[in-house]
Amino acid sequence: MTQPTALITGASSGIGAIYADRLARRGHDLILVARSAEALEALAGRLRREAGCQVEVLPADLADPGDLRRVARRLEEDRGIGLLVNNAGMALGGPVLTADPDRLEAMVQLNVIAATRLARAAVAGFAVRGDGTLVNISSVLGLAPERFNAVYAATKAYVLALSQGLHAELAGRGIRVQAVLPGATRTALWGRAGVDVATLPAGMVMEAEEMVDAALAGLDMGELVTLPALPDIAAWERADAARLALGPDLSRSQAAARYWQEAAA
What we know:
Elements: E1 5-9, H1 14-25, E2 30-34, H2 37-51, E3 55-59, H3 65-77, E4 81-86, H4 101-129, E5 132-137, H5 150-169, E6 175-180, E7 185-186, H6 189-192, E8 206-207, H7 208-220, E9 225-226, H8 233-245, H9 257-264
Parallel strand pairs: 1-2, 1-4, 2-3, 4-5, 5-6, 6-9, 7-8
Helix pairs in contact: 1-2, 1-7, 3-4, 4-5
């Protein structure tokens, strides 16, 4: 079967470039999005030679509103696009208290605002055709905000929640959603965040190629949430079931009796 065209953001290096390589070898034509036209052209040339696929380079700075709208329009209007890998993002190490607020805002702009606009554009286009796949790259830090910069963790928790919510909204429309939650992965993201990845325990750091291959295996298995490092997916299923079990008690007409019991005591 002919594979749909895949659009990949943050495709010039790291996780995005590996997704491009793997999807090209699976038979997808590609649209590669990143700021560096030179790096994209080099990757595109290699993939055309090695995989024999069509590769379009679409340079764009997703922090720029005009560029973001341009990529979103392409996603919504190009009926040949059937897969979005929503990968572009940035990180910032260190405590929020001492961080540059402009950099924190830029991180929210890219990790949340741009990711949301592109996800919405993609599923709007998919809905017209009745099929398509949205892959959102989140992070395990969305589940563990105490372990890194709180704003970064919050942006990744947002991406997870967005993915789960879209999955529910789009049920029955032929659109697949996957959230990928990598742990520490060896990419240039760490250096740009001001963190030396070599300072992390070696047993914590996964090679980016292995992470992407596991994520694609999770996609093939139909997972909504893929945690490449988690040994037993049942552990995630139990945690998610516990979250869902809270539902009936999260919104009631009266406050919980425990508040008044403590006051009476």
